[in-house]
Design goal:
This protein is of the alpha/beta class and 162 residues long. Helix content is 27%, strand content 30%. The strands form 2 sheets. It has a 5-stranded parallel sheet.
Length: 162
């Protein structure tokens, strides 16, 4: 299954559905992760907060190919995308294992194919290096076999790359 996370707004979600099985709009209207870890222990892969991101752990965990489209802000995701990714911690378990020669949480859904970041906006060379490093680290942590980062000048170009 292919999933796209984006920070464009809900009006773009329908257009992006042509390129994916699931589209999740990070519109900034979700509560931030409280760090209660109940998605790990009490309700595996389901958030304690009953909003639209209640099952985001399962959506992302079941995705073979995940594309994250986000505005670059100081070499990182937009706050809305970061919030959504934080809320997906339940796609792993509290147990640990070695992956990529380092200790990581055990994957609840197993290995997956590809993690792709499409980043738009003003981006310095230093921020591009940070993005490449972040994408690689996230791929290992989330259990993706491969990863890539593409850079675009604006949101319109980024949306066309999905």
């Amino acid at each position: 299954m292919k999933t796209i996370i984006h920070d464009f707004g809900k009006e773009q979600s329908e257009r992006l559905l042509a390129a994916a099985d699931r589209v999740v709009c990070a519109d900034g209207r979700y509560a931030p992760c409280r760090g209660c870890f109940k998605c790990w222990t009490k309700h595996p892969a389901a958030c304690e907060m009953k909003d639209a991101l209640y099952r985001v752990c399962r959506v992302l965990g079941e995705s073979d190919d995940l594309t994250v489209i986000t505005e670059n802000l100081y070499g990182g995701c937009s706050p809305a995308v970061k919030n959504l990714l934080d809320r997906s911690i339940g796609s792993s378990t509290p147990l640990s294992t070695y992956r990529g020669g380092q200790m990581h949480h055990t994957l609840r859904y197993g290995k997956r194919n590809s993690l792709r970041f499409i980043v738009y906006g003003d981006i310095t060379e230093a921020e591009k290096r940070t993005w490449r490093l972040t994408a690689g680290r996230n791929a290992v942590n989330m259990g993706f076999r491969e990863h890539s980062v593409s850079f675009c000048a604006d949101a319109e170009e980024a949306g066309g790359m999905a």
